[in-house]
Amino acid sequence: MRVATFNVNSLRSRLPILERWLPGAGVDVLALQETKVQDQEFPLADVEKLGYRAAFRGEKSYNGVAILSKQEPDEVIHGFADGASPLWDTRLIAARFGDIWILDTYVPQGKEITHPDYEAKKEFLRRTAALIAARKDEKLLWTGDLNVAPTELDVTNPANKKEHVCFVKELRDLFAQLCAPLVIDLLRVHHPGEELYSFFDYRVKNALERRIGWRIDHMLATPSLAKQSLACWIDAEPRGWEKPSDHTPMLADFAD
Amino acid sequence: MRVATFNVNSLRSRLPILERWLPGAGVDVLALQETKVQDQEFPLADVEKLGYRAAFRGEKSYNGVAILSKQEPDEVIHGFADGASPLWDTRLIAARFGDIWILDTYVPQGKEITHPDYEAKKEFLRRTAALIAARKDEKLLWTGDLNVAPTELDVTNPANKKEHVCFVKELRDLFAQLCAPLVIDLLRVHHPGEELYSFFDYRVKNALERRIGWRIDHMLATPSLAKQSLACWIDAEPRGWEKPSDHTPMLADFAD
DNA sequence: GTCGTCGTTG
DNA sequence: CAACGACGAC
């Protein structure tokens, strides 16, 4: 099985990229983030034309997650469904395919370390960790845009990002202590020590060619699923196409 | 020599259309209107890549005229240059190629017959007529978006346009008395009686296929130039392409 | 820099 | 319907 994650930064704006990329990518399950589309506006016909089904929850302008798949999922969950507020339905979606859970999150970016959104980001990560802990013996892949660069290897210039909400030490510590122990970072299993990025800021001129980016999108597997991991990689090509997202897809193959 | 006129409704937005249309169009001189670009933002590099030079005067958001040409013009004039205010530099540009003047105007639309802009429109037409009268024995082509549909043949439904600033009888009378006697309507020389339009409102669904439009862009030649007229036609194709202007190009061929 | 929003124009 | 400007988000 091949799984991919892609922060599309507007699904409707990215349909040409998906139409160019997906047919040849051999992807069985695709986790999308920042679809930025309300459910009644979701471009289901275009997705179906590409041979995929879709489970989704979005809102106008912001957020939005979707799981596209060749096969119908056996079960779909939106948000944390733990009764607590906020529900975060447009930032977390999970779908089960047989005994494998695909957990797709768009973790709040956090804006500034002094901003309430940064507190919400930490809360989101804590609740996600709790959710995974409850299924730690199951096969589960936590994927999506996590807005966390876990180590110094995961950003181009760590020195000038010490105050950044995706790299500040407090956040990395939280991630390392609460999240990382539950799951295995598949990109690092297959590519230890490599400077690989999944996000290249639009505002940085020629960021892709200059390799100025961030690794904030991830494929993190529970141990039982990690055993099946065959490969994990970032496909930087779509970032270089016309009208790209600022993120580029990441993929992982699993033995059946 | 082949001359064309095209109200692009934003030159920068229309570069893909120009890049698709111009290379095969065989145009020597192209009069543009509604470039909607300040001079310092004019996409000169793109125009030069297409093999053209450019004389232009534009402003932010509104108006803007340009004359693109394979050959460097011998002389360029902006506005009426008659000392009177307003100067209307971003609505009138003229370029001389040898003994032929190309006068490119974007005549004010006028908004409403009760609006001050409608008075300004009539004044613009009077001053243009005076300008042409002063050169009536020279070879001169008055082209551009004139925002005048001269006759009932030139709009789809004349009955419901009697109050429209581009068709109201007062305006047609002014045009017929002041402008028309000075020049020859080349489209009508070559296509008398045909329902041909150069403008199709974006707001009218499938206006092109339903042939609901206006003939408000023109090619009007002084008698000495009209003698050289070989053909004149509207190319409706670009109106059907992706991200079109609401106008479509009009062309004219002249014997050397 | 490229998204989305809204209100304004023709 | 498709430009524009302004704004907010990342």
Automatic annotation (TrEMBL), chains A, B:
Residues 4-247 form the Endonuclease/exonuclease/phosphatase domain. Its EC number is 3.1.11.2. The active site is at Y106, D145 (proton donor/acceptor), H247 (proton acceptor). One of its GO terms (biological process) is DNA repair. The record marks H247 as: Interaction with DNA substrate. It comes from the Bacteria. This is Exodeoxyribonuclease III. It comes from Pyramidobacter porci. The gene is xth.
